[in-house]
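Hi all, long-time lurker, first post. I run a small reading group and we've been trying to get comfortable going from sequence to structure in the token notation. Rather than ask abstract questions, I figured I'd post a concrete chain and ask someone more experienced to write out its structure so we can walk through it together at our next meeting. Sequence below, copied exactly:
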Amino acid sequence: MKMKTAIVTGCNGGIGFATAKKFLDNGWNVAGMDVADDPKEKFENFVYIKGDLSKSEDRERLVEETAARFGSLDALINVAGVAPKVRADILEMTEESYDFVMGINTKGTLFLTQLAAKRMLSQRQNNEICGYIVNISSMSAYTSSTNRGEYCISKAGVSMITKLFADRLANEGIMVNEIRPGIIRTGMTSTVKEKYDNLIGGGILPLRRWGEPEDIASVAYSLCSGAMPYVVGQSIDVDGGFHIQRL
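-- Answer (accepted) --
Happy to help. Here is the structure in token form:
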């Protein structure tokens, strides 16, 4: 049986690295992209393509080199995302910060999804499922943080990107879904670890622990494994129960 191929963005650490490893461990080829240097760990059936998701030429190179190396594209997991370089009250948010966050989190995700979907459709045979796209957004898609408004806006945009592409592509054999991580132990949250330790200890989550990158990776793989062929356009909260409204 031919090995399947996934693209994973933001693969140099955190959720992206865990997701790439999950797919590799299950016998997939993986092409990863990040802005950092090559990951220190080396894996068979893995190719790393350094690039900036906000740049069209890098997005195009990622899809083209993946197809050239592995011959097909079966899944795209959009993990890459950035927080504002400086947290600032929304009254003080700068256009520079907004453009930086939106360029990667929303614009980059949108146009890479477009490229990947076209590649998947070109491979379709008969009426079979020909691809899976999973967008990693955030609980910030629906939760207000007024000192990082650009991040919340960008992730709300990812939620709509998911709905739009799911609507457009489901009948053509591409299943598009979204995962909304909660408080996950990554480099992004390491700078506010004490804050989240206190919130978790105080009971903000019914499941009183940090989420791990592997918690997200497992769900992303399940969505692309063929185990859920009737699930499309879903926003799946992987957040320890944060989304439950409680009295």
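A couple of things your group might point at:
The radius of gyration is 17 Å.
The chain has a mean pLDDT of 95.
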